[in-house]
Design brief:
331 residues; alpha+beta; Jelly Rolls; six-stranded antiparallel beta sheet; 9 strands; binds 2-oxoglutaric acid
């Protein structure tokens, strides 16, 4: 993949976002999809055995199967947590907490040379895969009536990515790379942003709810509604975001799922802003020998992190926005 053109870089610098079409190919997407189908095949029988699901829905394709499983589960995280590419950000880590640290997401997403070439165009050749990363698989909103929703499964509230980092990492140089696995349209809940907002300081964010401290948000009243710009992108394309760009996503009002991953890269050696979780050297001109190429090692780091955090008891991270707990705009 050629690096970004000067015109693309200028657009990114002026607007704080950039849409890049046609980055992942069919082979990348098929490998990722197969990994996810296999996770459902592995986890669904356990949910049936524990009485959480009545049937395996295996006659349906991935999209419909996932939606039907979520509809039936009382706790949607009983399946979603196996699909996310991060452990949950909870104040107490379960000893059996899960994530997908599989070889397809390692090879076809986080270490994909086409993605790294683009990230290198913006933050240079010393690329650390930052562990602030998620899988978002969002079923049609009308399929999830009466469910407790969050940004991994439904609309994402307004925020800046810098706001989710711990406050010892605010000067890092981090790029968000959002990868579309299905087309993202205004109807199915593509991302939206406020172009140029990266030139302002970090905004006030309301603290997360009790479930996940990552669910901080900028109150809608503080977003200039007339500037909101949708960022639709086709399957296989990327949206790049500056760490200070105000953004969120629309609701999925279509009848299909909207599936994406958000990855982040920062310059090697900088504090990741989520040091409790493991990242890795994805590309380095200075020290190519430090690049992690073994997906198994990456997976083991996640699981040993989980074991340590579970043994530790209380997990502390990003308490920055608690001070606005009682703010009138956060009600
Ligand atoms: O995919 C989404 O809905 C939101 C993603 C997002 O906000 C992010 O990557 O920071």
């Amino acid at each position: 993949m050629p690096k970004l053109t000067q015109e693309q870089l200028t657009f990114f610098n002026n607007n704080g976002y950039l849409i890049v079409e046609n980055v992942l190919n069919e082979n990348d997407i098929e490998n990722i999809r197969s990994e996810y189908e296999a996770i459902l095949d592995r986890e669904v029988p356990k949910l049936i055995a524990t009485g959480q699901l009545s049937q395996d829905y295996s006659s349906f394709g991935f999209e419909e199967r996932y939606t039907k499983i979520l509809q039936e589960l009382d706790d949607m995280y009983a399946i979603y947590q196996h699909l996310d590419i991060s452990l949950p950000l909870l104040h107490s880590m379960d000893a059996d907490a899960s994530l997908n640290a599989g070889p397809a997401v390692f090879k076809h997403l986080l270490s994909n040379p086409k993605i790294l070439d683009i990230a290198e165009s913006i933050i240079g050749p010393e690329l650390y895969s930052n562990p602030v990363q998620h899988t978002r698989i969002k079923p049609p909103q009308n399929a999830l009536a009466n469910k407790a929703l969050d940004s991994n499964i439904a609309r994402t509230g307004w925020h800046q990515d810098e706001a989710v980092l711990t406050d010892d990492a605010l000067d890092i140089n981090m790029l968000t790379v959002w990868v579309a696995i299905t087309d993202a349209t205004e109807e199915n809940g593509c991302m939206v942003c406020v172009p140029g907002s990266h030139k302002d300081a970090v905004s006030m964010h309301c603290p997360g709810n009790s479930f996940s401290s990552a669910e901080i948000f900028i109150p809608d009243e503080l977003i200039p509604q007339e500037k909101i710009t949708p960022m639709p992108v086709k399957k296989g394309g990327l949206v790049l975001l500056h760490q200070l760009t105000e953004h969120g996503s629309l609701e999925n009002n279509s009848q299909q799922i909207r599936w994406s991953f958000d990855l982040r890269y920062n310059v090697i050696g900088q504090n990741s802003g989520r040091e409790i979780f493991p990242g890795f050297v994805a590309r380095s001109q200075k020290h190519p020998e430090e690049v992690l190429t073994d997906a198994q090692v990456w997976a083991e780091e996640w699981f040993s992190t989980r074991d340590q955090l579970a043994a530790q008891g209380e997990v502390a991270f990003n308490e920055r926005w608690k001070k606005f707990n009682r703010h009138s705009l956060c009600a």
